[in-house]
Amino acid sequence: MKILVMSDTHGDAEVIRLVRSQQEDSDIVIHCGDSELSYDHPNLADVVRVRGNCDYTDNRFPDEDVIIHGHVKIYVTHGHLFQVKSSLLALSYRAKELGANICCFGHSHVLGAEMIDDILFINPGSLLMPRGRREQSYVVLTVEQEAYKVECFTRQGELFETLHFNRH
């Protein structure tokens, strides 16, 4: 299963279309909030999307979502309600409470992926205003039988980092 994860595009509808065209074979497309678009914007069609702290003009965005695909449960939220800029502790409690295998979030604009208590946490960074590095980024997660592969791409579609995590 291939999952495209992006976040914090802050009104740039074109970058969403661009990234989706680069990864057309994705099984699931996730936007972790702060799109600053309307919920029914055409570039968000068939996208799992949640409300970020800047998505205050359209009340149809949920604060969180859970996707079950096969034997994988994915929890999606923006992160601002869990203070992810200072710690992932509150977010990890919520992910555990939901029984998630994967947690996708944004808000900090800092690209990262790590395993915490057998849950894979992914922040795809920002496609508009990255923090902590130069690359405007998104992530492609491939769920394999016994592992996760996290590939980090620039907005131009250039792969710049690959991480592997064992599934338990």
From TrEMBL:
EC number(s) stated in the UniProt entry for this protein: 3.1.4.-
Top-tier EC class: hydrolase
Cofactor(s) needed by this chain: a divalent metal cation
Calcineurin-like phosphoesterase domain segment(s): 1-145
UniProt key word Acyltransferase: no
Keywords tagged on the record: Metal-binding
Similarity comment: family membership: Belongs to the metallophosphoesterase superfamily. YfcE family.
Record-linked NCBIfam families: yfcE
Listed name of the protein: Phosphoesterase
Species assigned in the record: Lysinibacillus louembei
